Amino acid sequence: MKSIALALSGALLLAATLVDPTGAALADSPTAYRNPILHSDYSDPDVIRVDDSYYMVASTFHFSPGVPVLKSKDLVHWTLLGHVLPRLDFDANYDLPGPVEFDDTAERIPFNPRMGHRYAAGVWAPSIRFHEGRFYVYFATPTEGVFMASAARAEGPWSAPVKVIDEPNLEDPCPLWDDDGNAYLVHSRVGAGPLILRRMSADGTKVLDAGKVIVEDKVRLPILEGPKLLKRDGYYYIFAPYGGVGEGPQAVLRSKNIYGPYDIRTVLSKGTTHVQAPHQGGYVETPSGEGWFLHFNSTGAYGRIVHMQPVRWEDGWPVMGELLPGAPNGQPVLSHRVPDVGGKFEPVQIQTSDEFSDPKLGVQWEWNHNPADSNWSLSERRGHLRLKAMPAKNFVSARNTLTQVLHGRSSQITTRILVSEMRDGQKAGLAMFGKRPSWIGLTQQSGKRHLTFSYAGTDTVGDVVSAESLLLRVNVDDEFARYSYSTDDGKTFKPFGTRAKLMFSWWKGARPALFTFTSNQAGGIADFDWVRVEDTSIDRQALVTRNHPTLTSIDPASPFMVGNGNIAFTADITGLQTFQEQYSSLTPLLTQAQWAWHSFPNPKQFKYGDSLKTIDVRGQPQQYPWLRDWSEAKRPEIQWLRENPHRFSLGRVSLHLLSTNGKPAQFSDLKATRQTLDMWSGTLHSHFELEGQPIDIETSVHPRLDMLHVSIKAPTIEPSRLGVDLKFPGVAAQLNPNPADWEHPERHTTEVLSKSARQISLQRRLDDTRYFVAAASDEDASFDSVGPHSIRVRPKDRDGVFSFSVLFSAERHQQPLPSASDTHDAVTTHWNSYWNNGGVIDFSGSTDPRAKELERRVVLSQYLMALNGAGTLPPQEEGLFSNSWNGKFHMEMHPWHAAHFAQWGRTELLERSMPWYQQHLPQAKARAASHGLSGAWWPKMVGPEGRESPSTITPFLMWQQPHPIFLAELIYRDRPNPVTLAQYRELVFETADLLASFAHYDEKTDRYVLGPPLIPAQEVFPPLTTFNPTFELEYFRFGLATAQSWRERLKLPRNPEWDRVLQKLSPLPQRDGLYLAVESFPEQWEQARSPECSSGNTAEACWNRDHPSFLGALGLLPGSSVDRETMRRTLRAVESHWDLRQTWGWDFPLLAMTAARLHEPDKAVDFLLSRSRNFQFGVSGMTPRVHLNEHAADLVPTSTGNANADAGYRRLAETYFPSNGGLLLAVGLMAAGWDGDLTYLPGFPKEGWRVRAEGLRPLP
């Protein structure tokens, strides 16, 4: 019945019959689209235009009916017309007669053509062409041959398929009718390659010869497949991917002769994007001549979804996507203006929901194999789909499973099932179809129907269901399914079963499915009243927009930043850097870049060896750059080595603004200030009034150029009173937090290289450091020198709008700067794409009052880390905001800055900094060798040159050593393919060699030991006596085990030395049922409970402070050797006896991750919302670095001009970005979980928290 009243969560529409699976048209711009245009598994797409309509076909493999035909008027929005093949009548095995040699538990299933199924066979890579008034579709089946079907209309009816080539093991055919009347067919072979060309009859029904190999180059073009043959301007072109489905790029081959030889050019590859292997597809042109390439992108369990790239032609070659400066080929665009199709059309959508009211099955449905038509019906019970159970051993061997393509990254599928006619042995319900399938439904035994959840062949049987109908639901998010049911007509849904991981199966993504089968010979009936599909994707623009931060007055500690990951600009309330004096001394309003490093002159030729001390290590003298105490840092050679190289400020861009009296405006003259950071578009909007006259300034940074862009609107202010000053400082002797020196202009130079009416180019020199500056305006402007290192830019027009750009670069930029409109579009596109891709979490449905604040922190942290943690070098702890530790980066902090990028689906941002390890691998190996060890020994505190800085701590810190393995593993989990393994194998293996050789064997205890000398992550312990820290032991174990997994993935034997260490690595130290920080201090918890070290005492000798890193053995790490209950007691002990005042910002995410893995979500949330001084998120989202006043002086000297003591604390920095990266890592774990745990949202309480997440990856 269709009149049932529903109260379905998520505002399910009763009459829904369509869904937009794309999000393709940007919500805020009808003139732009974003990729994918179809988040739908239409793999191997081919496309043509006929008049003003576009038609696309795709592979269906074993599914029946086969070859969907889609239609579009604008290339962005598509609808289904039907299928070319009503059935796959090529072989009896397409009917799934059995036997099937695998079951629901199988993950790896090789195709065997002799068995009773055709999973992974069927229709491969069809092509579509229009010739002399008819549509032609060619396709291959790997076991039968090449076929063709034709039709007068794309909607059909289509002719019965004709076998064009009677030969197995062929794939990917494409025809061409040439200008001279000859017809050709190009195809490949199963296994990919070579490309073979055959002459074909004019009617396209048969080939005329055995074919000729026209392209075969296994070195340049391995795994060559999917050819699409076309002719353009006298050239024959073959568009063909190579290198494999998961990792290969797109090539174009060109020749004047159809038989070749062909010139080869790669035209599209992943580049700097997250789009893995922009692979096989089709090319089409609009009536205006615009070129577009539609291709698939492999996404794992979602299948291979459809992207579209713009194509322009240069010198007879296509240029696809976006061609970055210096890049050899294009890379995918994430968004772009819509195609010019010659008009505007109402968008259409793909059919999904179905009321089963029509006499024919909807075009969205495909059976898992050819159906047994006598066992399903739309007429026996009108308005319902009736499925009759047939015998099957398991789900994957059952016939008549009805599926449809999954659309969108987050979907909700609900069905009403009527079960009164079920029989014993029967199962029926709603499933996600694929390998290791999952489903919710009913199982009937002994006349009773039981609610049942099944996952990978294991059934969980629930309560008896007496109702004759119930509602079943599956929610799909991030490649996981979760199931629920309703017995009250949809008023409430109760979850049942665990989360179930979806799988890419038989070349297709996971699909929702309706099914029934029985273990008995006697059948039974399941009637489905309707299926309703809803796109439950998070409204990302609304999520980001509601968290835009706004200031109406200056916050001296929390200004806003704009940037692109390689350069960042910190702005004051005007949107520029005008009123520095209004800000904290720890807020220097800098412009810093990843490439901008400087060294003071070194006339005495200080070198690394000057910092080395000899230390006895188990009877062997070894040298370390060690300081016994910080007084040694005053030695000239130590000071120079620690300070150089260092980051510096590129320049200051400030507003030149005169009052009507001709005097410079003061801050007190500004009224009605209001500033909003629009994170969705990456633009800072600043408004204020001067003498009642409004001024609006927009500030942004170009996504690919290190270029600041500013637009000023001051319609009532004379141009002579308005301008922008570019000022350039030297480098101060005191580098932290502000390296800018404004007092010694004679120590640096600024040279004008060229100047025109609209642009000026400068060269800057700071000792041996040289960089370039270019400033430009779209309108005529004056560029006047107003000091030895100051340029004033002023508009000449009186229209009240002034836009200009300032580009900073290590090499001189020779091209004109992008226009204001081009820059605006590039910035908006970049940030829209950033937010529309990757992970997000929505807390808006929560009733806990803290949820809004946690959401704000998460969104702001995502923005800040894109600016400060996504550059080409590992970040410094204060990012590009200010200097600490002379701007050098701390390698032990790298995961806290950047690991979350892989977890949140933005792996490409993590990978920007990974080449640093590979570039410095020789240095790391040399350092290990100097200590008599194998592998690569990674430094702690370094600059881009890779030289370790001398310190009391640095040379003995070891918890950064497994980081390259941890990070590479996160990358592999996101891109599990041979390219990733090849790219990072050396890094992983050399790192593992160091881990194994650093652990030394103790014959007395028959175990491997870490240290001494060693300092753990909790940096309070003496290096020469400390050994076996808990976290490092577990991290070394994780690193070695993961490296062995990499060897196995590469089909290499396990490393026996690594296994020896793994087998005998010391167990995690504990005492009295609690884990210890280090084995060498067994009195840890007795000391922590003592009067001297508890109740707020802060004695230096108390070691229950700093990072409680031992908790990370089960938190950041999966804890393979951790006893959960011991760790639970240890967490309680930390809560009771640790001085959490003396911790750092990333410690609270660390605590939260441990609590989450212990399934204590309330504590996890409490830790993330701690009121600790070091974990308070200002209006901009930054957290300060604060220390107890009595201990601040004992810390590494990192900055000058520190704020005064405040209630017993001293503020040493206004930001500490490991807090933000750690927050994202913890929240990601709490939402997406970890391997082996199928709990939904395991880190969030059930009461008060309604959390929706998408785009997140589980951690190991």
TrEMBL record:
Keywords, sorted A to Z: Glycosidase, Hydrolase, Signal
Annotated GO MF terms: hydrolase activity, hydrolyzing O-glycosyl compounds
InterPro entries: 6-hairpin_glycosidase_sf (IPR008928), 6hp_glycosidase-like_sf (IPR012341), ConA-like_dom_sf (IPR013320), GH43_C2 (IPR041542), Glyco_hydro_43 (IPR006710), Glyco_hydro_beta-prop_sf (IPR023296), Glycosyl_Hydrlase_43 (IPR051795)
GO BP field: carbohydrate metabolic process
Domain Beta-xylosidase C-terminal Concanavalin A-like: from-to ranges: 353-534
Annotated family: Belongs to the glycosyl hydrolase 43 family.
Protein name, UniProt field: Beta-xylosidase C-terminal Concanavalin A-like domain-containing protein
